Amino acid sequence: MTPRDVACNELVELLTEYLEDALPASERESVEVHLAGCEGCGNYLDQMRATIDALGPVSVETLSEEAADTLLAAFRRRTG
To answer: Other C-beta atoms within 10 Å of 71: how many?
Structure first.
């Protein structure tokens, strides 16, 4: 079985689960194949990892409503 093609915008949606090791094996393999061939997405993954390393884990429950809204708006602008 070969991994399915993953588009850049789909990878952005899968990245959190990928980083949390929560993707099924077939999806994880598809993400890894895409990352191996896409420099932009590889850079995005590196940025996400650097952000996580700098900030540490942040639980959704600890965010204020304003902070959550700001983060969601920024994410939507980036992926929209």
So the answer is: 13
Tens-digit pLDDT string for the chain (80 aa): 456 778 888 888 899 899 999 999 999 999 999 999 999 999 999 999 998 899 887 777 888 899 888 888 887 887 65
57 burial class (0-12, 13-18, 19+ CB within 10 angstroms)?
Answer: exposed
Torsion 11-14-20-24 (CA) sign: negative
49 CB-side CA count, 13 A: 8
pTM for the full predicted model? 0.67
User: Encoding tokens for residue 12?
Assistant: 């952005």
